[in-house]
Specification:
Elements: E1 2-6, H1 7-18, E2 32-37, E3 43-48, E4 52-58, E5 61-64, E6 66-71, H2 72-81, E7 87-93, E8 96-101, E9 104-111, E10 126-131, H3 132-142, E11 157-164, E12 170-177, E13 181-188, E14 199-202, H4 203-213, E15 219-224, E16 228-232, E17 236-241, E18 260-264, H5 266-276, E19 286-292, E20 295-302, E21 306-313, E22 315-316, E23 321-326, H6 327-334, E24 342-346, E25 353-356, E26 363-367
Antiparallel strand pairs: 1-5, 1-7, 2-3, 2-6, 3-4, 4-17, 6-9, 7-8, 8-9, 10-15, 11-12, 11-14, 12-13, 13-26, 15-16, 16-17, 18-22, 18-24, 19-20, 19-23, 20-21, 24-25, 25-26
Length: 372
């Protein structure tokens, strides 16, 4: 194999594929990226961890077609340090690949192309297209609530399902929860999504997908079955196994009868929470909210550090209430609110609290209170 590629093109593509590769691998070939040079020109780069796979096709001049696998992280580090604007020549023969750019020359070990594993996609009967901006919204508004607890593996991703939503008609819903907070986004159901199975997209796939979306302006083709999902960006294709589990019926924890309504500016509220939480103990991060007519008093009491309090103006006309929340969780939710007003729907100190921009917003959040 012999091919010539621009350093910037190689670096960008390796940046996408090498992040799928785990740093520690018991199977040596999984540390490698597969590079295939096609007879008609162009390079195809591929990496996998057996659950997630990325394939990207880039422009390159090919003198001799062929395929090799080489350490993904090593090749990425080399490409990163090569001079800007340089042409990179890859030449492979007899178990080695030579990389030449300007005066720099590297010889790396390779492993046989035939040993490289490929995820068999099988049939992906459900296909639809989503604008990149919509996919970004879905991910950004929900992923902070994905659980990291391995024992409840079925919460380690974003749950996607279609539903009928009254006057809104057919919709696609995305939800994530860790048992302490819930985030849900609702978007119009795309053509072709009708009848798709309920699926849980794993956390690592979500992270890689979000990185790729930063470089896409148009739409992304989504294909899925009950066990796999594929995102097609044109030049890049991301394929992932889905989490084999049942996501809980999260609709049961979304409160519908919270009759105490607090309206306030999300920015000043978030800054107030952040300030008083400075002295909160790392374990609990608890902040107390005392609600009175048109004001909220935020306070933290820490046995080690002392006390802090701050008053935040708000629109509140219901009966007084004291309730506690994890400051980090509360700030994560407030950070997703783009408007100048956030609605906090409360019931009592022990009931789930509903947070949203208004009743027409795509996203809603549920936060469980803490004892303080």
């Amino acid at each position: 194999m012999k091919a010539t590629i621009e350093r910037a093109v190689l670096l960008r593509s390796l940046g996408h594929v090498q992040s799928v590769v785990e740093r520690r691998n018991t199977i040596p070939i999984l540390s490698n990226v597969l590079i295939e040079a096609a007879a008609g020109g162009g390079l195809r780069l591929m990496a996998t961890d057996l659950d997630l796979q990325i394939v990207e096709t880039v422009d390159a001049a090919v003198d001799q077609p062929g395929a090799i696998t080489v350490s993904a992280h090593t090749l990425f580090d080399i490409a990163r340090k090569l001079p800007e604007g340089s042409q990179v020549v890859l030449t492979a023969a007899e178990g080695k690949v030579q990389i030449v750019a300007g005066r720099a020359r590297f010889n790396l070990q390779t492993l046989p192309r035939d040993d490289f594993p490929v995820i068999a996609e099988g049939e992906l009967p459900h296909r639809f297209s989503l604008p990149a901006t919509t996919l970004k919204t879905i991910i950004d508004r929900t992923r902070f609530a994905i659980s990291t607890e391995e024992t409840r593996y079925y919460l380690n991703g974003i749950f996607l399902h279609v539903a009928e939503d009254g006057s809104a008609g057919p919709v696609l819903k995305a939800a994530a929860t860790d048992g302490h907070r819930l985030a849900r986004v609702t978007v119009p159901q795309p053509d072709g999504a009708s009848g798709m199975p309920d699926v849980i997209v794993p956390r690592k796939c979500v992270a890689e997908l979000r990185k790729l979306l930063d470089e896409v302006d148009g739409s992304v083709e989504v294909s899925l079955s009950a066990t796999k999902i594929r995102f097609d960006f044109g030049a890049a294709i991301l394929t992932s196994k889905l989490i084999d589990g049942t996501f809980p019926d999260y609709s049961r924890v979304i409160p519908t009868a919270n009759d105490k309504l607090l309206k306030l500016d999300p920015r000043s509220f978030m800054q107030g929470v952040d300030r008083v939480a400075t002295i909160a103990s790392d374990k609990t991060r608890a902040v107390k909210m005392a609600l009175d007519r048109d004001k909220v008093t935020l306070s933290v009491t820490s046995p080690e550090n002392g006390t802090a309090s701050e008053e935040v103006p708000g629109d509140y006309a219901a009966q007084g209430l004291e309730i506690g929340f994890n400051a980090r969780y509360l700030m994560d939710i407030l950070g997703q609110i783009e408007g100048d007003l956030v609605e906090v729907h409360l019931a009592d100190a022990g009931a789930p609290t509903l947070i949203r921009e208004n009743d027409e917003s795509q996203a809603l959040y549920v936060l469980m209170p803490m004892r303080v």
